[in-house]
Amino acid sequence: MFVALLCSCGLGVLTGKVEMATVLVVEDETLIREFVAEELEEAGYTVVAANNAAEAIAILEARQDIHLVFTDIDMPGSMDGLKLAAAVRDRWPPVHIIITTGKVRPLEIPANALFIPKPYVTKNVVAAMRTFENMS
């Protein structure tokens, strides 16, 4: 029980190193995606990036280490960021969600998700991420 608790909090039991959470950044604008990924890595997070919702779903299906999805709403493809967020909430309930857009805040977002409007300051994104359990 004690070891499981340590692992769930992000502490490396065998290595003694603190392991930060893994964030999936879903953004179709390359410069924004790369900038956010770099800033989150500098804050200590492991970052995986996707261009669209289909790529994000494939990553979530293949990996068990994603703690948070940070997604833009407006993306090309059959699924926008809101539909992605709903799919994440349904299929991967423990994964935290932050939704962003440069447009009007959506009236409804999935339960326990956060909304951050664009343009955003990355330190505010990191501060919002740290409000979630296991993300500090």
Structure notes:
This protein has about 140 residues and is of the alpha/beta class. It has a single domain, classed as Response regulator (Rossmann fold), CATH 3.40.50. It has five helices and five strands, in the order αβαβαβαββα. The protein has helices at about 1-10, 30-40, 55-60, 80-90, 120-130, and strands at about 20-25, 45-50, 65-70, 95-100, 115. A five-stranded parallel β-sheet has the order 2-1-3-4-5, with helices on both faces. The longest helix is centred in the first third of the chain and has 13 residues, at about 30-40. The model is unreliable at about 1-15 (pLDDT under 50).
CATH topology: Rossmann fold
> Which percent band covers the strand fraction?
15-25%
Major sheet: arrangement of strands: 2-1-3-4-5
Category from helices, strands and their pairing: alpha/beta
